[in-house]
Amino acid sequence: MADSWVNSAAILGTDLHLELTRAGSRRAALMGALREAVRDGRLAPGTRLPPYRSLAADLGIARNTVADAYAELVAEGWLTARQGSGTRVAPRPAPPPPVPAHRRRTADRGSGGHPAGATRGRRAPRTAPRPVHDLRQGRPDATAFPRTAWLASARRALIAAPHEAFGPGDPRGRPELRRALADYLAHARGVRTDPGRIVVCSGFAHALRLLSGTRLLRPRMAVESYGLAFHRSLLGSAGVRTVPLPLDADGALTDRLTALDGVRAALLTPAHQFPTGGPLHPERRAAAVAWARGNDALVLEDDYDGEFRYDRRPVGAVQGLDPERVLYLGSVGKSLSPALRLGWMVLPDHLVDRLLDAKGEREEWTSALDQLTLADFIESGGYDRHVRRMRRRYRRRRDELVATLAERAPHIRVSGISAGLHAVLELPPGTERSALRAAACQGLALDGLGDYRHPDATTRPLDGLVVGYATPPEHSFPGALAALCRALPPGRTSS
Ligand SMILES: Cc1ncc(COP(=O)(O)O)c(C=O)c1O
């Protein structure tokens, strides 16, 4: 049998041409043909494969051969098998996006605390395979989006929407959503607000862009010495110069804010420092607020993953200490999906109109239907249920990560694990770049701590890996962990 059309259009919904022309066993040939079909997109993620019996009959090979090939492709992460839903093509890990220009520029300046040449060396070698495992931070498990519950909310919201919802709306966002958020943020995050102080936006980055447009952040703004380069670059292109604030295990050293000249605002991640992972110490929270009060300044609180806490008491929002000085910014980027582009700002009363001026009359709005859906999702309890479910899932993964490292790489310390969707693996000095290269060779995408370091930071650079354990779909998490362990620098052997 050289070549066969799989005659399973009824099952696949499409014809599938598999060529079993390779030399060697039929199992290996079938696996090769299926991998190729997945790779070139003929078998899209989620496609259900034919049962063993029909594929075996179509190809003229033994049923067990098909069963073995499927099982092996499941183990490799190409396919998934679930009771009742058959064997399907696995969701494919997206290749890492091209490095954006601003990040390339930062890297060329040696932002990771490495000389420029050394930073270039961090890139994967040309021969590195395309990533098959994804442990990049910043993404929730995309396969866990609560499609059914979201659809139910969308349906209810659409039916209940008043006619005016389909006309030009209010730049503050739908009142239904602002009401739902005011309740939710008060009980879940300790935010002090009413709907009138909330402005809906399309996410944290959008909030930052809008705030930059108010000139409130100029001329200089303090940021944590480790953070997202994308946010720094966004501020930079709006004419806001960022000044790094040193960090330790208790978060940013906010008592240093008073010494910074010309700084009118500070951007902090108090619930879970991004990316190093500790909560901001209560005294430092108080120091940040005292600084803002004493210097007519503002604190921007980025609560990017505040819902996800595991074994420590919830840390409420700093905004609760002074709603007139602290702007609380959040989004569904981690709790639901970054693709929804839905976020919120809780503003001091006196800044609402200024922000709305920056937002403008028409353009920068999020779809009213998505806003209404989120309002229903929150009010019907769907959001809470989803967050609780994901908290259990991510906690399990976090535990698995910690246990695997304890067993296979006990010399590596893991930090930042009591909350959030990522952990930091602290590496021996000077080993970050080689660990990243080793990861690329294992087909594993992830970031090093150096990628997050402010180019002007003066503290000693930290070597570490930022592991986004929420990112892979359930079935490929064990494979991603195994690849991670293979990429870690070995411990010292006692002689
Ligand atoms: C530090 C930090 N802040 C905020 C966000 C949320 O960003 P957005 O709402 O623009 O998706 C993220 C998401 O990755 C993040 O990592």
Explain what this protein looks like in three dimensions.
This protein has three domains: 4-89, Winged helix-like DNA-binding domain superfamily/Winged helix DNA-binding domain (Arc Repressor Mutant, subunit A); 101-144 and 385-487, Aspartate Aminotransferase, domain 1; 147-380, Aspartate Aminotransferase, domain 2 (3-Layer(aba) Sandwich). The chain has 16 helices and 19 strands. It has 495 residues and is an alpha/beta fold. The strands form six sheets. A seven-stranded mixed sheet has the order 6-14-13-12-11-7-8, sandwiched between helices. A four-stranded antiparallel sheet has the order 15-16-19-18, covered by helices on one side. A two-stranded antiparallel ribbon has the order 1-2. β15 and β16 form a beta hairpin. The longest helix has 27 residues, at 382-408. The protein has helices at 9-12, 26-39, 52-59, 63-76, 101-108, 116-120, 147-160, 175-189, 204-213, 229-237, 282-294, 352-359, 368-379, 382-408, 432-441, 477-487, and strands spanning 4-6, 16-18, 79-82, 86-89, 133-134, 198-201, 220-224, 241-245, 247-248, 251-252, 263-268, 298-302, 326-331, 343-346, 413-415, 422-426, 444-445, 447-448, 464-468. The structure holds pyridoxal-5'-phosphate. Pyridoxal-5'-phosphate is lined by residues 138, 203-205, 228, 269, 274, 302, 304, 331, 333, 338, 343.
